[in-house]
């Protein structure tokens, strides 16, 4: 079994897939081991089953039929467990339609779509008798079960639609079917002669659709063939070695090329024909360029060595591994090739979020019905999603302006701090809505303002997501994330004892703060430099503010996730919250610096405050656990300091400052503050240039703004 799946021995503690949420597009390839099926939950909750697999074949779960496995799975993950909005049959082969009869007894199916309805007598397949059985089933469902049926409409954008409510930028495009392919302006008959059986087979009649959700695209096309040949090598869009032909009628079967010209490139796709040689050709992969590939496998040739070698070919501009529903083909491919070309085996779930701007692939245990997550890809941004997703704006309260006098007085009072102190902008939120917003001294709402150490709190949120994703814990030793050659040869007990929690709470005992060396790119490997310096004190014993703590947290997140902290947060936080106008500095060795160097708008800083106030929830979705937010806002170390600055001596949490009035704040050096006040369900956010007046500013907030909230 793949090393990828060694974690199965911990099945009893592995996480489960979180339920579908409004706005997500979920695409499930259900592992029965018997043919092909795809279960889809659209962003509004509309459900769709594409094909239903085979019924009279050995199922992966003993004592269950494939139909029962399908039914149990869909009832578990469907937002409407007893109902299926669409059953869509791509073509009339038993390994695509056999289990629908068992399934039909378990679920109400509202609408059936196939390429022939209602003229099934004209279907020419090797298993025509089963087509008759299917036709009788359709008749029964439509006449006595209250469902409806219709023929697949090539070129349509409206046959499969969200039925609960309209979804912005979501579309299912009927690309091809029944020997026709859409041109965008009508139908084009493919170059085969239907009345010549030598040039005809049912796979060529498969129906294909393309899902589009914002910038995300997913393609599936049943068993459409490309040809019975393949290119050994494919480079720069051309064959680099001669074509190997296995079928003299190749020109009649190459549906893939014209489908790819119409559809590609795509974000993700299912392999044609279970990954056997006549589909998913090198030409097709070159044109489609999928970032994710999925395949429904059943026997020892699904997928086959020819297809896996194509996928693994580094010259092709596509993903070089495929997620499969079965590992029955391991021996037929050889374990070396299988390991090189297969990313995971089980129930495969492709979850698309943030209006189609990000996605993640999950592999679920297909051996029982607990559906534990046994592997998961990193969350990824769809290409150009950042460019396509402008900042969104927080709503404005009906009480907007009610606090103008108090807030304006703070702007006026700042000048009394010192001659150079000024507030550039302020946003006040109450109950999640703006009640005050002002920009001064030439600053603008869309300006990327330097965040200084307010960046640290974003990094703590990233650590929370990594903990939530089971990639690390706060008790992990810091040195466990680094190689021996990145650590000093002689390691003190203090260095060996340092934990992630010590970094979060500014109590690590690091003996050097190299922010200047990192910013000037003097240090080639800042983490190595920081960990090699003599320790200053025992980790956890006391508070000592040091920005290298946060830098190390960023590098640890990068090592755990395989992605820069900024990219990881872009998927997890920035896109869901609609904060896309940002930059973040990197070190000489390509690590997001974490503790400083972030530039973003005042409104995005206010959104972070609101996200913390709402305990990790945004627009009704729990993005980060309440437990992590509570842990962030708890005092672990006390700073000491003067009694006249109570908000600087109330304690330090996970990269946030604990304040009076049961509040806490995000805090940057020059007045980058987002003050979270749970007692008032409010957030006060500023950007400024406060050299000596931050403490006076906080006092003015408590004296002037707080009583009015």
Structure description:
The chain starts with 24 loop residues before the first strand and ends with a helix. The relative contact order is 0.08. The strands form 7 sheets. Strands 1, 2, 3, 4, 5, 6, 20, 21, 22 and 23 form a 10-stranded mixed β-sheet that branches. By secondary structure, the chain is of the alpha+beta class. It is built from 22 helices and 34 strands.
Radius of gyration of CA atoms, rounded to a whole number: 29 Å
Amount of helix: 25-40%
Number of helices: 22
Average per-residue pLDDT, rounded, comes to: 86
Provide a brief overview of the structure.
With 709 residues, the chain is an alpha+beta fold.
Write out key terms for the chains shown.
34 strands; ten-stranded mixed β-sheet; alpha+beta; disordered N terminus; single chain; 709 residues
Topology overview:
Elements: E1 25-29, E2 37-41, E3 47-52, H1 66-77, E4 83-88, H2 94-97, H3 100-106, E5 108-114, H4 128-144, E6 148-151, E7 170-177, E8 180-182, E9 187-189, E10 208-213, E11 216-220, E12 230-231, E13 234-235, E14 238-239, E15 243-244, H5 250-253, H6 255-263, E16 268-270, H7 282-288, E17 292-295, H8 305-312, E18 322-324, H9 330-333, H10 335-341, E19 342-345, E20 347-353, E21 358-364, E22 373-376, E23 380-381, H11 385-388, H12 404-414, E24 422-430, E25 433-439, E26 449-450, H13 455-468, H14 493-497, H15 500-504, H16 515-519, H17 526-532, H18 547-561, H19 565-574, E27 582-584, E28 598-600, H20 602-613, E29 617-618, E30 621-622, H21 626-632, E31 657-659, E32 663-668, E33 672-677, E34 682-689, H22 694-705
Parallel strand pairs: 3-4, 4-5, 5-6, 11-16, 16-17, 17-18, 18-19
Antiparallel strand pairs: 1-2, 1-20, 2-3, 7-8, 7-10, 8-9, 10-11, 12-15, 13-14, 20-21, 21-22, 21-23, 24-25, 24-34, 26-28, 27-28, 29-30, 31-32, 32-33, 33-34
Helix pairs in contact: 1-3, 6-7, 8-10, 12-22, 13-18, 13-19
